[in-house]
Amino acid sequence: MKKYWIILLLMVSLLFVPMRTMAKEDAINIYLFRGKGCGFCQKFLNYVNDTLTEKYYGKFNLVSYEVWNNTKNNELLTKVRTFLGSEKTGVPFIVIGDKYFEGYTESYNTEIEQAIQDLYDSSNRYDVFEEINKSGDKIDLDDYTTKELNDVYNEEGIIAKEVKVSSYSASNGSNTIAIVLWNLLFTAFAMTIILVVQNQNKKAILEEISKIK
Length: 213
Description:
alpha+beta, 4-stranded mixed sheet, 8 helices, 2 domains, 213 residues, Glutaredoxin, 59% helix, single chain
């Protein structure tokens, strides 16, 4: 009987294969270098608030460095610009993976959203700070000041939008149903195999008993 349970456990272990492939929920980082009161920075933040937080819910964190009033953060911006090969100045300076955007206009939106999706889907995510450290120019991020997105909104007088996640939830709901159905299918298959094997063994025993009689 023990071997039947081993078979069942092996079959059940297969149930978690689709769950692992569907459970990629770790968010990427969007790095924003901004100046307090910068009009173009505010436009980008409004775009994040109005579009990105809902369209890419749960897929990114926005890590903000204010550089006009923080000398250390400005030094960090210079390092990042130099490493990425940017020769311009000014803010906002937006970094997503190995892509960067100098300033902000609505014409960037398609590229920004593609960069977010590409980085989120990548199995080998590029992070500019990790790459700078690999190059030998060590950066201790604890030396610099970041703010949570809602704090940045408050600082700029932007009212954070209540994120509607109905479409996101519906998508996850359909995935959950698919996983449940997948699990039921494999469980039924495993139990069927066990029952067949058990019946065959019972039949063989009865045949042996009949031979003895």
